[in-house]
Amino acid sequence: MKRIPTLVDGLDEVLNGGVPEGHVVLVSGAPGTMKTSLTYHILHMNALGGRRSLYVSLEQSRASLLDHTDGLGYRLDDAGGNLSILDLGTLRKKLTGSGEQPWMDLFKLYTQGIRKSFDYRLLVLDSLDALEILAKFREARKDMFTLIQWLRGLGCTTFLLGELPTDATGGSNGRGTAYAKHKEDYLADGIVHLRLARQGEFGMQRQLRVVKMRGTRHDTGYHALVFDNGFKVTRIIA
Amino acid sequence: MTPATITTAVGILVGAWLVALVVLRGRRRWLRATYAACGLAFLVMGVGFVGIEEGFLDPAREDIVLGTMLLAYALTAILVVGLIHGETLPRGRAAGFLLLAPIPFLAYLAPSEGWTMQTAYEGNLLGGYLVLCLGLALAETVYARLTSRLYAAQSFWLSLGVVALIVGGPIYTYELQALALPITAGANFATPLALAAFALVTLQADPVPASTRLARSRWSGPSALRGGEPIVFEETRPKYAVRAATMEAARGRPTMVIARTSPPLTTSGLVTGTILPNRHAALRLLTTASEFLADHPGGLVVLTGFADVVAMSGRLRTFEAAIRLKHVCKDTRSTAVFSTSRLSDSERRSLKDLRLTWWSLPDPAREIEAILSQSFGSGAPHLLEAFCRAHGLRHEDVSTDHVPAVIAFLQRTVAELTGAVEGGAGHGLKVQVEAASSVLRAFADQDASEASRGRWPSRRPAEADRELLVTAAEYWKGKEMEELFAAADAVGDREPLYEKARAVFVEELGDAGEGVLRTQIARLGKKPEDLEKGDIVRIADRASVDLATLADVVDLPKEKDRLQRQVDEIRLRLERIVREDA
Fold first, then answer.
1. Does this model's pTM top 0.95?
2. What mean pLDDT is predicted for residues A170-174?
3. Is the CB of A109 less than 8 angstroms away from the CB of B516?
4. Mutate which of A65, A88, A91, A105 to test chain B, going by most B C-beta atoms within 10 A?
5. b/e sequence B242-266, b meaning 16+ C-beta within 10 Å
6. Is the confidence metric ipTM above 0.90 for this complex?
7. Domain range spanning residue B465?
8. Which phi-psi region, left, alpha or beta, contains residue B263 (left: φ > 0; alpha: ψ -120 to 50)?
9. What is chain B's mean pLDDT, rounded?
10. Are residues B373 and B490 in the same domain?
11. Nearest CA of chain A to the CA of B251: how many Å?
12. Distance separating alpha carbons of residues B270 and B316, to the nearest angstrom
């Protein structure tokens, strides 16, 4: 099985070499767990290696996203044209009668059409929740099933960003809870859960867990997710 | 520097450029790798010669240059065989590379036997191996030249490359020996010419770009098209071929459609390739299909543009490509579909002589008309014409995909008559429509395999439905039938605007197009059936603005241009609808 490396130090070891090509992976976590940064890192690093990637942002504008990622050291110019950002956040503001627009159709129109001129192999949808609200899912589970099936048909590796609520302790614990609102965790081929865990009296640590990855023998425990001139996944030292 | 080292150095630069060109532009992974390996071996050989001659390389390293020379000539033979038999490489790849097996043995023997660069072409085991490699390559090209029309041009260039290597290598060395001149061991001055000839053939036979790349996978699952053979779809338009492609892709089978023009839509899971007008079209068709099937054993390739390839490359070349593709299908348990659409009668007959599996398929437009005739008699063409007018279709474009729309159209027409035709006549009319709908559905549900069995509605004897027609005549006494046609015309005249606009949006934007149109209609506060000409103009204006905004947020210049072209096309077509309707 061909795998797409995440090029995150330590994460590819956890994933036994990377994400199987063509998988639809749900990356879920509470706000502040660096879902956007982590997935952008994966796209950016793969783009540096010549693998074309598309980042679809429904919430942040392109300028804001680039400000954010430039700050982390990921310069879009370095990607040599292999990374494209589709700024649907700005489209929402520009398009008259934005609420009435068929957003699911527009999302499909773009992602399918762009492949004609830019054959991307990696896709990030930021975020699934924003698309759900914009597209006004009537039967959320059925619509989600259709969307994931459709994404699988695209044939590229997809990361769907999903928001989880922040729990009372300051992090989303993920213990005994679902990783998605509408059971999309059952539908996705893989789930990566990000959380903020309490460390000592005052500290918080970002942690990552590969909950599920079809066709992969992976480590199922939580690992520390550290950003220090790039992402690193390391063992949690108590 | 001596003239020999200067010539070799220039050759190294040219060779490096050719290797880079093929590596960057080539699309056949294995051939690209073989070419690169072969080219690099020649380049290392040249660098070794220049280095030793100019004194910046230890002459003791001549053994490396000798090893590289062995590798270069062996890879030349493998490359030439691969370029001629590229489509069967998956099967013969391992066997081809067996030619490399003696190299370690010869390298091991070289020091003890005293073989050096100067004596490489002499009558010993080493010389014999080099002659075998070049001889094999030359024999293959000559054989291809004599037996294959498809590879005739390519085999000329390959022969030229191999002959150049023979002249620049052994023959030139023998001449120097005969003239008692110092032997320029390790250099083959013909390398750039040979690499250029091989690069030309590599690029001439390159597969056409695919619309999207599917992950490499083997497929085995239920299918209406059995694997392991090509099937010819005899049809006037490639309707069943396209339908088979979309149905198989929906089942998850890796499917590629190769056509002359790019289809307007990107269907998820379906790969498309466009054949460019070129006399090598047949060869590129073959390499495109064979590479796809080698990457996706069990897959399906549908050639809707078969007639175009025949026109571009000639009948014999194209049919040879079909025969070779038959072997690929057999080796990979895959299926290829050739549509005979737009082939001339003589071309069809010649294709039939190839004894491929042949499925004669009906023209859905004619069959739909025949089904309607069984229920509505001679008025069927009138009904179908009204349907086509209502949907902005040409009669010949009607396919099984339109059957649900035909049924809906008939039902709307009957509903129109509810007030005008009462009692038994009204009931009879509904029964007739139900009967026609049922037969239409059964016909549309048939896949190509079932349709090829020949039980077509147009072939059914007219007597079978005469009874039904008499019953209908009794109900309507001839008069109501006229009313039905008038109602169909009325429905057709009232509803074309939405259907025509929908066709424009869907053809340009894919499935998402209907949603975009409906949004525009909703924003006008109208229903699709209430659309008027003025609304179409307003939709054209608004859609232009909205769709241009869509292009604004894309950061890819090519995609921006593509979206802009779509916007312009939608606008033009909508304006044309309004003009035609006026």
1. no
2. 47
3. yes
4. A105
5. bbbbbbbbeeebbbbbbbbeebebb
6. no
7. 364-494
8. beta
9. 82
10. yes
11. 11
12. 29
